[in-house]
Amino acid sequence: MKKCIVIGCGAAGMMAAIAAAKAGADVTVYEKNEKAGKKIYITGKGRCNVTNSCTDTDFFDNVVVNSKFLYSAFYSFDNNSVVDLIESNGCPLKTERGGRVFPMSDHSSDVIKALTESMKKLNVKVNYNCKIEDVICENGRVSGVKISNGKVMKCDSIIVATGGMSYSSTGSTGDGHEWLRKLGHTLNDCLPALVPLTPAEEWYKQLQGLALKNVKVSLYDEELYCKNGNNKKSLIYEGFGEMLFTHFGISGPLILSASSFYAKKHYGKECILKIDLKPALSFEQLDKRLLRDFEENQNKAFKNVLGGLVPSSMIPVVAMLCGIDEKKAVNSITKEERNALIDTLKGMVMHITGTRDFNEAIITRGGVSVKEVNPSTMESKLIKGLYIAGELLDVDALTGGFNLQIAWSTGHLAGENAAIDE
User: Fold this and answer.
1) Residue 232: band (very low, low, confident or very high) from pLDDT cuts 50, 70, 90
2) What number does CATH give the domain 283-346?
């Protein structure tokens, strides 16, 4: 039997261990935490968005970076395979809005239990509270790992699945990146992704806790926007859905998705975010509605009529941004002021200066260059017998279960091939 060592007992690590053991390897997992799946435990607000029930085309459309690299991994172990494996180990699943798949119980711990039970059935040995200090190579091939107590454990193949840099409290502290860098791998800059954005404006603090539904956000490169306006050249991301104002900036599904495209090519640059509060109405349609509302409420103060268009907490902010006195009677509002109001409702502007840090990022952008990893096996092209899976790789996707699917697919492919490693 081939001796296979898996470093990391998260999503990719557990799946790699299961696949390697099923393929006949003698598998040992080393995990520096006291238990398995600490990051899985907190995903999906503790519910664990296991995967997405989408088509293969939709899956790849939701991968922001290096989607083609994942073809072999996904087609060899897709979303249906994940569902089958988890359900067959005692954790029934359900599908919700947007194809998001969750455990029926709404407890991420049940997903972890299913995976650890599967490892147990396959006689996978798991060592908790056991930190790996180094990956040992001889003559261009892995030969073992050095444990923190000084012991060297020999093996035929190693799967590194230690995660990225996000949520360091779960153990993702960049250990794997350092070992792989020392072994000659190129690391593309690691940046926080699927992370809240920070604006320059201060008025967002007045809206803390406000959630907006059915809005459209558009993120633009500020320099290109100033040159070309809001055309395709300056557009970084556009989406429709929900967002949230917080004590530090903006968050929510739409903003997290926007942040991944921001991190892809524009990290560190100032960008312009426009929020369309009325995406279902054109400029002309909104103007007609305002004229009707103003006609019906001629003697009322502007702020009292605005309550029919936006949440009450937004009234002072919208009035400030469009430059209309809240107390002004609507029958004295000019056409120019009405146009300014429409511009604000259809394009509330925020200047984005950056993101929150890794402690608030769901995933890590960047990591091991996929050019140095065989996409058909997940084996390093530089070191024989070394396999890399999960968030360590420079591959990432949007929210909705897609990033966990990347972990399952790459982990499974690595495990299968590490077991038959020549």
Assistant:
1) confident
2) 1.10.8
